[in-house]
Design goal:
The chain is mostly helical. The protein is 74% helix and 0% strand. It is built from nine helices and no strands. It has helices at 2-27, 34-41, 45-52, 55-80, 85-102, 104-114, 129-146, 152-171, 177-191. Helix 4 (55-80) packs parallel to helix 7 (129-146). The longest helix is centred in the first third of the chain and has 26 residues, at 2-27. The mean pLDDT is 90.
Length: 202
Amino acid sequence: MTRYRESVRSLLHERLLDAAYDLVTAGGWDKLRMAHIAATAGVSRQTLYTEFGTKDAIGQALVMREVERFLLGVQERLDAHRADLRDAVEAGVRFTLEAAADNPLLKSILTSSRGGDDDLLAHLTTRSEPLLDTATAMLEAYGAEAWPEVDADARALAIETVVRLTVSHIVQPVGPADVTARRLGLVLARIALLPERPADKE
């Protein structure tokens, strides 16, 4: 019975997030109302408040769900370049930046912020600790298993730096994804004390 209740609650949780996602991507975060989410999901407002409590909690849950989806894609790129830490990180960063540019929720977040509503953007900037902690922990664990020969402290610092810079480039891109990925790969190589490549000196 306990597992059944947990399963039902998980389905409800996803159903509410799906409704919020559709509304945000269609009309923006600033126009989102709790009553609209409940109506779209076909539940009472009390059910919605019981599950999330506040609109801000829904925003954080939306962002973290996208982070988890991004990390699955990142892991696929890491697996494909497991023989080389720098190549793996460059592939992961490039995937993240390219996917972010086409992601409906992130587009809505950034568009809303330009209109003066930065509540949801805060989950990528001033209140981004859950996002950064999740991404960093996943990549550190992966790195420890895949590249144990790299100094642990240097590897951890390099990964944390690249994660934070990648999020910064999602919010405010300064160049093409492939160029940024190569630059962050160089940052990682220097922090983690990896051998430089001839192109690094050009």
